[in-house]
Description:
The chain is of the alpha+beta class. The chain has helices at about 20-40, 50-80, 140-150, 200-205, 220-225, 225-235, 235-240, 265-270, 280-315, 320-330, 335-365, 370-385, 395-405, 410-430, 440-455; strands at about 1-10, 10-20, 85-90, 110-115, 130-135, 155-160, 165-175, 180, 185-190, 215, 245-260, 435-440.
Amino acid sequence: MNISRKDIDAINAVITINVAKEDYAEKVEKSLKNYRKKANMPGFRPGNVPIGLIRKMYGTAVKAEEINNVVSESLVKYIEENNLPILGQPLPSVDEKTEIDFDTEESFDFSFDLGLAPEFEVELGGKDKVPYYEIAVSDEMIENQIKSYASRYGKYDDVDTVEEKDMVKGQLIELENGEAKEDGIVVEEGILTPGYMKDEEQKKLFIGKAKGDTVIFNPVKAYENEAEISSLLKISKDDVKNLTSDFKIEIKTITRFKESEVNQELFDKVFGDGVVKSTDEFKAKITENIKETLVADSEYKFNIDAREMLVKKHKDLQFPEAFLKRWLLDSNKEMTAEQVDKDYPKMIDDLIWHLIKDKIAKANDVKIEMSDVEEYAKKVAESQFAQYGMVGMGDDIIDNYAKDLMKKEETVRNFIDQAAAEKVFAIIREKVKLDKKEVSIEEFNKLFEQEQEQELK
């Protein structure tokens, strides 16, 4: 077998593989013998079909398959041994002979077009300046977090009279002419909250009522939402469409949610027994946790800006455009040439960043251990809890949730990539100059809005 390489230019090459009979003949014979062992034909015992008949029936197909295997293996091996920085996957050369006669020909030439990554170096230093936004912790953030904790650790109390946000429980009975309707709707354990009612007049019917009182109201007027009415009356949405009746409810219980008081009991529930011993310490601990969360936001924005800076810095890199567009169309059958032309600039930006990231990782011997992946999974778990105001969760809760996240193989692969990216960005942060700016959370969020507006233009 002979393999040759022709460089069209620095980013395009053609690999030609010449396959002679001795490169595949033995493999073809071995494969045909395996076919013979498995062949089951009328008139012959299993495994005793004449090899000549097997060759006549399967010879051409087996020959073509084994030649393709030889070519594929040789191409991959050549690329790996020569450390070729290929982009996408090799494609049959546009000048490749399209029709091959496997019946009569014994030697074959196969040519493949290759797109190569441009050669360049990534240099990072003080001349590279990237903004780093430090988000200030406001009093409002602290108070909102305290309210979140007070709500989370609150409890429901039985009360005697109804207020807007109370939960009212009792038997619901459909009425007709002021009396219980024969075969009408009855819900033994009906539950409603006046505060959810859209109609103010219907809502007022409940305010101030006590246990044992009866309220007559109209669910359709009160809610104006088929789903809510369906849930309240335990009927289908179709039945709701024809409903006009008033209902009465005899109030059995009134339950009111009461937020936890901000005291030692709450401190212990949130941060553990004795960790926080005063309101000032409670606020200080909350501030610390919020800062940790905001650091992640600051670093996320830095990562976006650092990537943008580095991609822009290497914008002059040349890529095999014709090859890449052809590869995109070949590997994505649903894409059109128009879509490829439209998406190509963004694809090149992504490709530049991918190459930059790999060069930084290799230059700094970045390695990813399972412990790195586990730590990243914990960060994801903490971040997801934080989205719901659940900051400062216990290590056991975070660890267990992280383990659940890592049960999916695809998720683990994604975490490996993200953990590697984190290490690359950490290296970038160390080597570039950080242009630190303190901003409010509103100003910080505005930065993302401005970016989105620019993308839409």
